Amino acid sequence: MIGIAGNLAGHAYDLSKEPRASIAEIMSSIARIETTSYARPEPIDRLALRYMDELDSIISSGKRPGISTGLADLDHRIGYLQRGQLVVVAGRPGMGKTSLGLQMIAHAAELRASKQPNGAPGLIISLETPALGLLNRIACQRARVSTKRFSSGIMTDIEMQSMMRALGEIADWPITVHDRSLTSQQARAIAQAEIVERGVGLIFYDHIQLSANEGTNETERWARVSQDLKGLAVDMDVIVIAASQLSRQPERRDNRRPTLSDLRGSGAIEQNADIVLGLYNEDYYAQQKARWAAPKGTAEILILKHRDGSRGRVDVKWTPECVRFDNLEVARASEDAEDEEIPF
Questions:
Q1: Which of 12, 119, 166, 227 would you call most buried, defined as having the most Cβ atoms within 10 angstroms of its Cβ?
Q2: Residue 302 confidence (pLDDT) above 60
Q3: Helix 131-143 crosses helix 97-113 at what angle (to 10 degrees)?
Q4: Average pLDDT over all residues of the chain
Q5: Among the options 34, 54, 128, 335, which is catalytic?
Q6: Cis amide linkage into residue 207, ω under 30° from 0
Q7: Contact 206, 125 (CB under 8 A)
Q8: Is residue 302 within 8 Å of residue 257, measured between CB atoms?
Q9: Which of 202, 216, 222, 223 is nearest to 84 (CA)?
C-alpha cells in the first residue's frame, strides 16, 4: 500500500500526462489493493480443497453455478456464464449484438433483485449509445413494446401501462451505466471501482471497435482492448461480455453465417475470448432483397468458440420491433397469450 501511495503522489505531480489517464491509473491502483491477496501463487493442495468445497456446496444446495443468460437452450449448451470468462458477442450491424448483451445484463440483475440464484449486479459500459437510449431498449424488451412506437410516442393505453410497469421493475435492478468515450484501461478502472463498491459480477462492454485506445493500427488497438477485458475478468473474478463487429467477409459469401475468421481486425480477440457467440438472422438478408418478404422471426446464436465445451448452434426467437431474443417455446406461449388478450 505504501508503494501504491507513492505512485499516486508521482501521478499528482506529473503534469505531462492527461488528467483522465492519470485518474484511470489511480483508480486501477486503488482497486488492485483489494485483490493483491489473490495474485499470489496458490499450492495445488489448497486449490483442490477449495474445489472440493465448491463441489460440496453445489451438490448440497442443488444450485447450478454460474450466471444465466436468460435463454434456456444457450445456458444448456454453454453451461451458464462463469466468472473469469470473456464472452464475445459478434455480428454484422443489425443482428442484435447490443440487444443480446443488454438482455443478459437485465436478466442477471433481475434474478439478483429477486434474490434468485444465477444472477448478479451488472455494469454497462457503452461507447455507442447514450444511457437513456439503453434504458429505452431494456424497457421495450421488458414490456415487449416496439422501440419505434415508444420513440414516436404513439402507443396504446395498454402499451403505455406495460412501459410504466417495466420501468418501475427495472428501477429496482442493480445495474450501473457508463456512456462516455474511453479507453479499455479507463473502462477497466471504472469497472474495478464498481466491483469493489457495488459487487458487480457481470459487465457488458459495447463495443470493442469503438474503444478510444491508441495504437499504430487497428489490430494493435483492438488486441489491447481484448487483453484488458480478459484481464479484468480474471483479476476481478467477474464475467465480461463484449460486443464485437465482424468484417465484411460474410457479405461476400453465399453462406453468410459468421466464422471466427470474420472477427474484425484482430486474431487476439478470438485468442483472448473464452466464448465467442456469432449472431445470424436470415430475415435480415431476405428483407434486404425483398422488403415485402415476411419475416420468420427466428435467429441463430452460433457458438463459434467455447474454451471449456463444444461448438454448436442455438435457435431463438428474434423480435426486432422490441429488440428481444426469446426461447422459442416461451415466445410461442407469449404470442398465444397476446392473441387471446388483443383480438384482431
A1: 119
A2: yes
A3: 70
A4: 84
A5: 128
A6: yes
A7: yes
A8: yes
A9: 202
